[in-house]
Amino acid sequence: MPGRNFLFIPGPSNVPERIMNAMHVSQEDMRATDFPEFTLPLFEDLKKVFKTETGRVFVFPASGTGGWEAAISNTLSPGDKVLMSGFGHFSNLWIDMCQRHGLDVQALDVEWGKGVPAEQYAEILKADKNHEIKGVFATQNETATGVASDIKAVRKALDDANHPALLYVDGVSSIASMDFRMDEWGVDLAVSGSQKGFMLPTGLGIVAASQKALDKMSSAKLPRTFFSFEDMMKVNDNGFFPYTPPTTLLRGLRESLNMLFEEGLDNVFARHKRMGTAVRKAVEAWGLQLVAQGPEWYSDTVTAIYVPEGNDGNEMARHAYRHYNLSLSVSVGKIAGQAFRIGHLGDMNELMLLTPITGAEMAMKDMGYDIELGSGVAAAQEYLRSTKKQIKN
Ligand SMILES: *Cc1c(COP(=O)(O)O)cnc(C)c1O
Predict the structure, then answer these.
(1) CA-to-CA distance for 311 and 322, rounded, in angstroms?
(2) Are 144 and 86 in contact (CB under 8 A)?
(3) CA atoms within 13 A on the CB side of 297
(4) Under DSSP, is residue 108 helix (H, G, I), strand (E, B) or coil?
(5) 304 in the same domain as 168
(6) Which atom of ligand 1 is nearest to the CA of 143?
(7) pTM over 0.70, yes/no
(8) Which domain of life is it from (predicted)?
(9) Residues 299 and 328 in one domain
């Protein structure tokens, strides 16, 4: 097919040319004497993205799922009680992982379209006088529903109950795109991956751990080998890895961090908010409903959109792929077919963003939806024009 594929799924996201070029390098000696000159600043700079000065960051050749496993296996023991909530595909998968690791999981079942139930967490933590709960889990951005949660509120629930449990946050589709403050919010384990906000190919599980989390390693009994923080720390301290690191991806990560810092993290977050708002303007103009059930839950990295009843949003997304070479994201789990998603994270600007809106309009019209061509595009265009940066000529 001539022309390019337009990729608007919430990960893998588009890899900018600068990063692709940075990865176009020969394989290198990971035990070379000057390798630490590359890796040590990389570890330090990663901490800036997580906003931690007191914690440390681990980079595994894995994906976000591996990051989840690293976070739990280094800090918990079989039978430990953990408080979790499920409100979409990813939050439910983390619950499943904890169950399969033999943890005693108290999982709150939350309506899809809402996020972490911080008030309910607060009640449960207050009632847990003997501090049996060892970990509290929160998915900051539920990618399946386009729902963002308030991590600060979860921290407050722990603090108000004076509860010592560790706070685990899945930030796979939010860290490096949406505000995240590990130290300020008292997050103990923060999980991310390379192929979303970091704008890299899949292949890195990136995990940050607080000092409090690291102190749990000696008593935590879940088995870990590949994901052992301890093994990593021993050699990471000198700039090396306990097994072969994916040096190509690390070179790409270096360039990703350069780009994030050049733009400035606050500007990156503001850009994502603007992109997310533009998509929501289009959805409103189409007369369709978001899966997210209110502004407090809006995600700035991915939008899930219900299609009119009686239609199959996934069939529409497949149609867009076949006919227009546009990758919208299908809906999964409980809402499979009822919705479709647009990923708008990472390397993204105004005109890129108009592409999935324009293509979705064409595909929805083709499928017989009552959509006026150009309506969503115009709403997004107006919003993007009226909020553009003032540049002096
Ligand atoms: C993508 C994603 C994951 C899983 O990450 P993989 O890299 O696919 O293993 C976990 N949580 C969230 C919120 C995600 O978006």
Answers:
(1) 18
(2) no
(3) 24
(4) strand
(5) no
(6) 15
(7) yes
(8) Bacteria
(9) yes
Whether 332 and 198 map to the same domain: the answer is no
> Does the residue 117 lie in any domain?
yes
Listed in sequence order, the residues at least 6 apart from 122 whose beta carbon sits closer than 8 Å to its beta carbon are: 156, 157, 160, 161
* Candidate of 13, 89, 90, 194 to mutate for ligand 1, largest count of ligand atoms within 8 Å of Cβ: 90
Shortest-distance Cα residue to atom 6 of ligand 1: 64
Reported as half-sphere exposure (CB side, CA atoms, 13 A), residue 29 has a value of: 4
Residue 157 in tokens? 């629930």
Blockwise average pLDDT, block size 10, the chain, 393 residues: 94 98 98 98 98 98 98 98 98 98 98 98 98 98 98 98 98 98 98 98 98 98 98 98 98 98 98 98 98 98 98 98 98 97 98 98 98 98 94 77
Tokens of 347: 């390397």
On whether residue 216 sits in a domain, the answer given is: yes
Residues 241, 268: one domain? no
287: in domain: yes
Residue 274 lies in a domain: yes
